[in-house]
Amino acid sequence: MAGNNHNKFPWNHVLGFIFSIVLTLLAVWAALYSSLSITAIVWTIVTLALLQAAVQLFMFMHIGEGEGKAQKGTIYFSAFIAVVIVAGSIWVMNAMMHSMM
Amino acid sequence: MGHTETIDPNKPLEYQTEKSRLNILGFWIFLGAEVALFATLFATYFVLTGRLADGPGPGELFEIKGVLIETFILLTSSFTCGIAIHEMRRGSKKGLMIWFGLTLLLGLGFLYFEIEEFIHYVHEGATIQTSAYWSSFFTLLGTHGAHVSLGIGWMIMILIQVARHGLNTTTTRKAFIISLYWHFLDVVWIFIFTGVYLMGMVM
Amino acid sequence: MKLDEFFVTGDPLIYGADVSIILSMIGVVFVLTKYKKWGWLWKEWLTTVDHKKLGIMYILSAVLMLFRGGVDALLMRAQLTMPETEFLDSTHYNEIFTTHGTIMIIFMAMPFLIGLMNVVVPLQIGARDVAYPFLNAVSFWTFFMGAMLFNISFVIGGSPGAGWTSYVPLAGNELSPGPGQNYYLLGLQVAGIGTLLTGINFLVTILKMRAPGMTLMRMPMFTWSSAITCIIIIFAFPVLTVALALMTLDRIFGTHFFTMVDGGMPMLWANLFWLWGHPEVYIVILPAFGIFSEVISTFSRKNLFGYKAMVYSMVIIAALSFVVWVHHFFTMGADASVNSFFSVTTMAISIPTGVKVFNWLFTMYKGRIKINTAMLWSLAFIPNFVIGGVTGVMLAMAAADYQYHNTYFLVAHFHYVLISGTVFACFSGLYYWYPKLFNHKLNETLGKWSFWLFMIGFNVCFFPMYFLGFAGMPRRVHTYAEGSGWFELNAVASVGGVMMGIGFVILVYNIYYSIRYEPRLTTGDPWDARNLEWATPSPVPYYNFAKIPEVRGLDEFWRMKKEGKKDLDLKKDKLEPIHMPDYSGVPVIMSTFLFISGFGLVFEWIWMGVAGAIGVVITMIMRSFDPDEGYHVEVEEIKEIEEHVRREEA
Ligand code: HEM
Ligand SMILES: [Cu+2]
């Protein structure tokens, strides 16, 4: 808990900020200036986005504080739901398009 | 609902009362629901990608420069918002207000560029009614933008309360919760940046 | 819009409704004025944040909605009893099955269960209220305003008619012009806000406000089922919010999510709807499972068999309930991999459900079973629900479902699970917890009459429908031909419907009768029950517990009774002042603005939609600046109240 380091320099935040800038630029590079295949690009930039989300959650939002366990549980479960909703919908809807053609 | 609250020196002010702890946990759970909400909008967007009718496609209209400006503004605002909470925990009311003020300005800047971008698309013939693709694009980004606008209004309310009452268990809790909201909107933007813009330019 | 388009005209049924609505409104205003009850209504009910009072209002509204939905049902049965009847035309019939389905699921089943959750959960976990009492009131009022918005469609503007599932293109602008479908969208949207808030509120309450010593694995089963239900609500309702919003955009603002032109994708609606819709059916069944667990354990005089298995099976059901939604549209024609996957997950979900059935049976095994109305509803649930579940597994076979889909077989399936599951549970819970709220039981003789009529009527009504399905009768047809061979079974079903109607009327009469004639209780524990809600005196003081109980295991109250311990010894126990939240008028006012905003959007009067929304924002800001500190109940007052409700001296 952040109890006794109130007065220190906010390293966490500064580092987090640098990370997020670097990760963003990396994603731009991978998507627009690299010679990766499209599939590789998609996987790379999605991974980078997930990393960046983690940076926000852990370095900016103090997810471990207070009810850390319940809070993390909520976010992990919501990530599962998000994958179900997004990947599931894409899969199901595209499967229909194929079988109709 | 605890009657007597004892001050625990190891915890920041916003965690000192039972009510604050409940509210913060509840807000995290609310953010979980927001994840499901945005996930549904993303699902819609991805399913409808490529369904352009006679309208223009994203590859023709997206420009990395404007998008990067928006992204950096929002990332920076998330940082300033984090510093604001850091200042609050040092007990600096002034610090909190200054950094929140900066966050607000950046938020407004983001909205300015986003609206600018939308107007540009509309001029190019891509409106919310043009095609399924643009309907989902504007709805996803519009929902995020509406959240940012709401966040700005909300943060102003909190600033007024901090200015009036100083830092106490209530105002610090409220400031902390709005900061969570603000960071969360940044998380959503990261996925918009990746899933909508970068992928839109790659495909 | 002309006035005769604004009000629905031209139908004697609706004129009758107009007259009765106006008369009952005049009646209510008259009674309130005559007995000077306006102040009382405002102070005690409209502004309340007390979970028990909110629970009562939820249940009352739900019973009212059950009546409306029931009338719809009987109208449908009247139309279908004989072939080629011309009682209702097809449009009318469509509207009635639409409002019936929507009302029953959204405005009856959920509020009834949420009402029971409101009443029971804080008491069961030894808490003085929920985590956010103010928000709880917001939940109730948004639900109520949503329900009202949906219901006035009947007399103002016209009802929706595209089914509770509202598939496009039927629900789109071309085929459903006018305000009807908008009522569906906005009524559900407004009510959905309340449901989401309830989910968060009760989850935090259960996680954080349990009495000391009550670990997760010592929670009563109804509390467990409520917690799991909340989790499903939290992650399912946002999907509905978005789906409704997208269709609203399509209809009012000309977007192309689900349209037939410009790239829209009608089946995307079905996909989003069922992404919410299947979790929704578990939202209305899990609390029911919790209620049955409580009732069966109490009246078998035994603790619940396989407590842990019960908990884990619910957790598994919750997770699985998010990955089965495609079974509602196997016939869309997705490829075999998709249909097989969802077929398997659907069948998998019946395994934990089966585990629970065995647990209830083993709970009763060698128990000293006491039969009363509450227990009868729970007992009847088991075999009837099994029929519903088994036919569900039949539907889960994707290939076979091509045959069953959208026939009366499906109608029979979901009524078997929803009525013998959810509705029986609501009634069982009502009979069981009623004394806690009103300090008297419901009459047993009337209760048994209503039970047998309703339960037998239910089987007479819905069992034939399985066979109508086999005989090929499609759902949602307003009539059928002479030569179809469907007449006899339909006639039988209608007889069952009437029996259920009579059963319901007796139930309502029972409430009136019991208020007048049932003896008042002298104890807070009329059933010799097991969990903490019964440790409180009846009626429960508004702060619930003068002293928060200490929990040492499952069925804590049972243990206390065995050890001869009392929850509160007025002579010895030291009391402390209790902090309670203030009542507030904001929730009802804010929800009224939501209603106004929704009503404006229904008629596509954007100015009114915006005006209502501004009202909502202003009330929210007012709330934010409200210090909201609550107040303390002093020890003297607590003593006085406890002496009174416990009928003893300090
Ligand atoms: C044993 C577990 C269950 C299985 C395997 C199951 C399976 C299914 C399947 C496959 C369908 C779609 C059939 C079709 O449209 O052709 C269906 C429909 C339905 N089920 Fe179940 N079900 C189960 C339990 C429940 C429960 C517990 C409820 C609610 C309390 C429920 C409520 C419904 C409803 C409302 C529909 C139809 C909705 C509509 O189309 O209007 N089911 N079920
Ligand atoms: Cu289902």
Automatic annotation (TrEMBL), chain A:
Any Pfam family hit: COX4_pro
Locations listed in the record: Cell membrane
EC identifiers of the protein: 1.10.3.-
Enzyme class: oxidoreductase
Transmembrane segments: 14-33, 40-63, 75-93
Membrane topology annotation: Multi-pass membrane protein
UniProt GO cellular component terms: cytochrome o ubiquinol oxidase complex; plasma membrane
An MF annotation (GO) of this entry: oxidoreductase activity, acting on diphenols and related substances as donors, oxygen as acceptor
Catalytic reactions of this protein: 2 a quinol + O2 = 2 a quinone + 2 H2O
GO BP, one annotated term: aerobic electron transport chain
Keywords recorded for this protein, A-Z: Cell membrane, Membrane, Oxidoreductase, Transmembrane, Transmembrane helix
Similarity comment text for this entry: Belongs to the cytochrome c oxidase bacterial subunit 4 family.
Function: Catalyzes quinol oxidation with the concomitant reduction of oxygen to water.
The protein's name in its UniProt record: Quinol oxidase subunit 4
Species of origin: Pontibacillus marinus BH030004 = DSM 16465
Record lineage: Bacteria, Bacillati, Bacillota, Bacilli, Bacillales
UniProtKB/TrEMBL annotation, chain B:
Keyword field contains Protease: no
Compartment(s): Cell membrane
Parts of the chain that traverse the membrane: 25-47, 67-85, 97-113, 133-160, 180-200
Annotated InterPro entries: Cyt_c/ubiquinol_Oxase_su3 (IPR024791), Cyt_c_oxidase-like_su3 (IPR000298), Cyt_c_oxidase_su3-like_sf (IPR035973), Cyt_c_oxidase_su3_a-hlx (IPR013833), QoxC (IPR014246), Ubiquinol_oxase_su3_dom (IPR033946)
Record membrane topology: Multi-pass membrane protein
Predominant place of localization: membrane
Key words of the record: Cell membrane, Membrane, Oxidoreductase, Transmembrane, Transmembrane helix
Heme-copper oxidase subunit III family profile domain ranges (all copies): 25-201
Source organism superkingdom: Bacteria
EC number: 1.10.3.-
Catalysed transformations (reactions): 2 a quinol + O2 = 2 a quinone + 2 H2O
One Pfam family of this chain: COX3
PROSITE patterns: COX3
GO biological process: aerobic electron transport chain; ATP synthesis coupled electron transport
Keyword Transmembrane: yes
GO molecular function terms noted in the UniProt entry: cytochrome-c oxidase activity; oxidoreductase activity
One GO cellular component, as annotated: plasma membrane
Family: Belongs to the cytochrome c oxidase subunit 3 family.
Protein function: Catalyzes quinol oxidation with the concomitant reduction of oxygen to water.
Protein name: Quinol oxidase subunit 3
Organism: Pontibacillus marinus BH030004 = DSM 16465
Automatic annotation (TrEMBL), chain C:
PROSITE patterns: COX1, COX1_CUB
CDD domains linked: Ubiquinol_Oxidase_I (cd01662)
Domain Cytochrome oxidase subunit I profile: 34-552
Transmembrane segments: 12-33, 54-76, 96-121, 133-156, 183-207, 228-253, 273-297, 309-330, 342-362, 374-400, 412-434, 446-471, 491-512, 605-622
Enzyme class: translocase
GO-annotated cellular components: plasma membrane
Needed co-factor(s): ferriheme a; Cu cation
Catalysed reactions, semicolon-separated: 2 a quinol + O2 = 2 a quinone + 2 H2O; 4 Fe(II)-[cytochrome c] + O2 + 8 H(+)(in) = 4 Fe(III)-[cytochrome c] + 2 H2O + 4 H(+)(out)
Key word GTP-binding present: no
Pfam families named in the record: COX1
UniProt-listed Enzyme Commission number(s): 7.1.1.9
Major location (coarse): membrane
Pathway note: Energy metabolism; oxidative phosphorylation
UniProt keyword annotations, A-Z: Cell membrane, Copper, Electron transport, Heme, Hydrogen ion transport, Ion transport, Iron, Membrane, Metal-binding, Oxidoreductase, Respiratory chain, Translocase, Transmembrane, Transmembrane helix, Transport
MF GO annotations: copper ion binding; cytochrome-c oxidase activity; heme binding; oxidoreductase activity, acting on diphenols and related substances as donors, oxygen as acceptor
Membrane topology reported for the UniProt record: Multi-pass membrane protein
GO biological process: electron transport coupled proton transport; oxidative phosphorylation; respiratory electron transport chain
Compartments, as annotated in UniProt: Cell membrane
PANTHER family given in the database record: CYTOCHROME BO(3) UBIQUINOL OXIDASE SUBUNIT 1 (PTHR10422:SF35), CYTOCHROME C OXIDASE SUBUNIT 1 (PTHR10422)
Biological function: Cytochrome c oxidase is the component of the respiratory chain that catalyzes the reduction of oxygen to water. Subunits 1-3 form the functional core of the enzyme complex. CO I is the catalytic subunit of the enzyme. Electrons originating in cytochrome c are transferred via the copper A center of subunit 2 and heme A of subunit 1 to the bimetallic center formed by heme A3 and copper B. Catalyzes quinol oxidation with the concomitant reduction of oxygen to water. Major component for energy conversion during vegetative growth.
Family: Belongs to the heme-copper respiratory oxidase family.
Name of the protein in its database record: Cytochrome c oxidase subunit 1
